[in-house]
Every structure is written in C-alpha cells, then in structure tokens.
Amino acid sequence: MDGKLLEVDGLTVSFDGFKALDNLSVSIAPEELRVIIGPNGAGKTTFLDILCGKTEADVGSVKFKGIDLSKLTQYQIVRSGVARKFQTPSTYEDLSVLENFEISIPTGRDVFGSLFFKRNSAVKQRIGDIAEQVFLQDNLRTKAGQLSHGQKQWLEIGMLLIQEPTLLLLDEPVAGMSPRERERTAELLQRIAPGKSIVVIEHDMEFVKNIASTVTVMHHGTVLCTGSLSDVQRDPRVIEVYLGA
User: How confident is the model over 43-86, as pLDDT tens digits?
Assistant: First the structure.
C-alpha cells in the first residue's frame, strides 16, 4: 500500500454526458482525518458514492488496503472496513438508542436478528464505550425519534463505529446542528480518530478549522489543491472558485 490506506487513481464518472468526476486522484493515509470541501456540483458526494460501491466509475481505480473495491459488492465493501454516513440521519426512530446500537453489531444487523440478540458482557462494554464516545451514555433507553437532530447524527456515527470500520466516510455531519452541537461533533471526531481514517465532506468552514490538518478542495470533479486549511484559503484558485475574496 506504500503507506496509503486508500488510493484513488484517475476516476472519471459521467452522467448523461456530464462528468461528475474527471480524472480524480487522491490518497488517504492510515489514521488520517481528511476534509473535502468544494462548491455544490464539485463531485464530493459522487466520490463517496464510488468508495462505497453505490456508483461505478467509467475509468480509474479505487484501492482500499490494496484491494480493488470495484470488484466488491456494497455489502463486501462494508465488511472490508468502509462505513458511510449520509447527510440525513438514518436510524430506527421507534427503537431505543441501545437497540439501534445492537442492530448495528454485525451479528445483529437487522431488526429480526436483534430479536435473538444476546447481550454478553463484551457487547455491553462495547456499546457503553461507543455511547460515551458519541455523548449518548445517558440516553440509551431513549427512543431515537425523541433525540435532537444533532443527537441523531451522533447516534448514526455510533452505529457505524460499532462495526469497527477502518475508513469512515461522513457526508456533511454537522448540517442542521446548533453551534454547541457542532463544537461537540468536532470533539467527537477527535475522540474517534485514533485507529481509523476519516473522510469528511463539509461546508462549515469553522467546523473544518476545528478538525482538519489536511483539506482537499474539489472543483469540476477533480482535485483543485490539497494542503492545510490556511494554505488552501490563500490559494488564488480556491479564492476564485469557492471561498471568495
């Protein structure tokens, strides 16, 4: 892998003649937290769609831990260690936080399986640890539908963490959150970063400043530049197409 957990080379994806991705190349190191920014239509979400197998590339390659993801099904990609959170929270609203966590454990991945799920000491410890990481340790008996928007986002992140991914993909995780929830989400990501790589798509630049050491700017389906936030903010190309003068 040459020190790279994820290596994307020359990805091109077209929809009805429009290139959503245009010769995109990017690499992510183990235990790296990378933020991807860019204007609407830059191809950020399509990039995540490729990584999780939702969309197929016309040309190019995606290697995760040296494995060609294009040859795997979406389920196999998840099992290989890639987990994705979409923009809108996806939780079981009528079930408790605890039950949502239990369903997310690989041996109890659906509602039917959870009926026969056994809470041994290791499972209880794992759920307790995750609940604390995502600030929900006092809400385990609360139904997901009664949580705030930010708490639902944290719950879904926790549901992904239960699966012990190596690569976590987060699409606008703080959209719709209160300022305090955004601050705590930044803290959450710093908590969970050790031991895994995290790719975050985000528009909130204050949040980006709080979490990112490396930022990639996308524009017209390709990488415009990569560097520290201060570096990309000073880049004339970025100022022109995204951040403004």
Answer: 999 999 999 999 999 999 999 999 999 999 999 999 999 999 98
Structure tokens at 226: 């990569």
Burial class, 172, CB count within 10 angstroms (exposed 0-12 / middle 13-18 / buried 19+): buried
Beta bridge partner(s), residue 171:
201
What is the chain's Cα-based Rg? 18
Cβ-proximal residues to 15 (8 Å cutoff; 6+ apart), any chain:
none
At residue 28, the pLDDT reads 96
Would you give the end-to-end CA distance of the chain in angstroms?
39
Domains of the chain, start order? 1-81+166-245 (3.40.50.300), 91-164 (no CATH)
The β-bridge relationship of strands 59-64 and 67-68 is: antiparallel
